[in-house]
Amino acid sequence: MEGSVSSTPSLHVFDWAIMALYFALVLGVGVLFSRKEKDTDEYLLGGRRMPWFIIGISYMVSLMSTISLVSIPGEAFKYGITKSIHTITAPIAAIGTFYLFVRFYFRAKVFTPFSYLEERFDRRVRLVGSLIFWWTRVAYLAMVLYSSSKVFEGAADWPVWATVCLVGFVGIVYTTMGGMKAVVWTDVSQFVILVVGMAVVTAKCAGAVKGGFAGVIEYSFAHGRGFDGIREPGFFSLNPYVRLSFWLLLISIVAEMMFYNSSDQISIQRLLSTSSYQQAKKSVYTFAAIGLPFAAMLWFLGLTIFSYYGQHPAEAADITGDTALFRYVSIHLPTPIPGLMISAMLAAVMSTLDSGLNSLATVATKDVYIEYFRPNATELEQVRFSRIMTVVVGVFAIVVALIIASVATSIEETIMEASTIWIAFGGVLAPIFLLGVTTRRVNGNHILFACIVAWAITAGTVTWYLISKAGDRPLSFLFVGVPGPVMLLVIGYVCTLLPGKRDPQKSAGLTLWTLRKDATPPTPDA
Known about the structure:
The protein is mostly helical. The chain has helices spanning 13-34, 40-45, 52-78, 84-88, 90-101, 114-120, 123-156, 160-177, 180-207, 212-222, 246-262, 265-272, 277-311, 324-332, 337-373, 379-410, 415-422, 429-438, 444-469, 483-495. The chain has 20 helices and no strands.
């Protein structure tokens, strides 16, 4: 009988065997491609000839990671689908921000977007941008590792530290061996498995809910898991104490996509691995076309899991929104489907780790190592340095993940909330690039001053948020990353009104207003 099913998570020996086999195959792909990549063009960018539709899938999967696989169903389970407005507007924001920034990176065969900052502003801004990206993406990778712990916590009742260390170690080994080609092709295979797996889980779980698919909508909406947030009095206000508001959702998705297409080495590195700007454009359209329906499936899956456990309360002991899906997978799906599902999700972790560590190694090599330490380093030396940095960053990400796990548990955060808070200080990156492409008078001194002010404001906002969590009126987690970047933009645009000379060489061909101008004008003018 369905009601007598145990609520204790467990995996069959065949599930563990499937996971071991999957890991072996993924590592084998890394070994295969590592033998062919002896220079940075091949190792970091796949030779700049990857197919656009494959890059579009990889673009989505690398940015999705287990944070989305855990947080979207978890958000729907705990709060409902009001935040899906964020998802619905994502494709439009992605395409718009692509047109705003990416064309500048195809002007020359660059490896990172931060070389643009040196051309547009100066070397100091390039270094600051690179270091900000480092913190932003190390925190992101740590959150990916932390979210992966929710998979095993829900499926096998593993402690967080064990999963973080195990998955982190496997990810480091795979990343060190493989390159961009290995990452991209692994992304495609895991995407297929994830889509099939999620569809199986959704169909199986919905079948156990009274009324099936329609019953899921009826039950979840009747129990406050629909778009109830829209009807809240403060939803269309700018009140920072409203957990979800329309304007914060809109600002957050635009800022997120602006980051991805301006300064996120993970996504930019993929686009640069295509053969041209036009091919990269097709990749972003592919991302928009497949990302929306996949995200919609994740939101519906969260409602399905909520409806099932709501109708089977005897099984719901000790279940949270972030673990409910994986608890259901381990208990109710026949072997070896749980093993295949969890393998695909952990492969997503490894792929994201691979992408993140590979991008961090690229920034370390091209923006720091070559610029400040070994400008004459050979290609083999650069590849060797990239591999070393992969290991260093991976170990550091594991440590940060364990710290995040401790803090997130103590303040009872969901994955979605915790990831927003920890990455808030990187919110200044996209505004820096926005000022770069939309102004001609802002210079490096203006940018550095604006950054300092923005960080101070962000630190104050994070402190405000943490203090408010202890009270009865908590600040919205979406608000934390807004004041700092907004102030940076305000300062930047005010600086365009200040008197003084500008250097046309720092804007020619580098802004939306000077795209057709030569990049090396003869003399500065007022």
